[in-house]
């Protein structure tokens, strides 16, 4: 009986160690992002990609503030239903902007300005920096 209990304990401990829970972390807007390309989606230049070696860098903070490192500008943002609302008090016209956003993966952010800034539509691609 003693051997049976030891065997059961051994089996339970071996199977418990072999199981790992996959922790899926949802992508988050918070962090440092750098513009890497602009993709045009409408005719006549559909699919045209403009790449940036040293594109603008934006830091989204968890408190609703952001910093545009490239233009030394700070502002606020909010998120509502996959829409990013940005208030830029340091722009020439003290503007508010709205973007539709999604994540290609946890390291790639896609932003489409509403309304489009390109004649036939385009979106910006940002990579997350460490």
How would the blueprint of this fold be written?
Blueprint lengths: L1 H17 L12 E10 L8 E3 L5 E4 L4 E4 L4 E8 L2 E6 L6 E11 L2 E7 L7 E8 L1
How would you describe the overall organization of this protein?
There is one protein chain. The protein has one domain (29-129): Beta Barrel (Lipocalin), CATH 2.40.128.280. 13% of the residues lie in helices and 47% in strands. The protein has one helix spanning 2-18, and strands at 31-40, 49-51, 57-60, 65-68, 73-80, 83-88, 95-105, 108-114, 122-129. The model has no long low-confidence stretch (mean pLDDT 83).
As for the number of domains, it is 1
Q: Strand tally, please?
A: 9
Would you tell me the structural class of the helices and strands?
Answer: mainly beta
Can you give the helix content as a percent range? 10-25%
Mean pLDDT: 83
Q: Note the run of SSEs as H and E.
A: HEEEEEEEEE
Largest sheet: 8 strands, antiparallel, barrel
Second-tier CATH architecture:
Beta Barrel
Provide a count of the helices: 1
- From the N-terminal CA to the C-terminal CA, the straight-line distance is 56 Å
Please compute the radius of gyration using only Cα atoms: 23 Å
Which regions are unreliable across 5 or more consecutive residues at pLDDT < 50?
Answer: none
Beta-strand percentage range: over 45%
Describe the strand arrangement of the main beta sheet, using strand numbers: 1-3-4-5-6-7-8-9
The CATH topology turns out to be: Lipocalin
Instruction: Specify the overall morphology.
Output: globular
CATH class (first level) name: Mainly Beta
């Amino acid at each position: 009986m003693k051997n049976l209990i030891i065997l059961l304990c051994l089996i339970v401990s071996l199977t418990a160690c072999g199981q790992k829970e996959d922790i899926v972390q949802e992508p988050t807007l918070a962090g440092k992002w750098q513009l890497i390309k602009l993709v045009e989606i409408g005719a006549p230049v559909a699919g045209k990609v403009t790449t940036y070696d040293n594109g603008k860098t934006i830091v989204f903070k968890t408190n609703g503030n952001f910093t545009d490192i490239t233009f030394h500008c700070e502002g606020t943002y909010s998120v509502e239903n996959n829409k990013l609302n940005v208030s830029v008090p340091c722009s020439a016209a003290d503007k508010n902007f709205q973007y539709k956003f999604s994540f290609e993966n946890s390291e790639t952010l896609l932003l489409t300005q509403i309304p489009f800034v390109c004649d036939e539509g385009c979106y910006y691609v940002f990579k997350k920096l460490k």
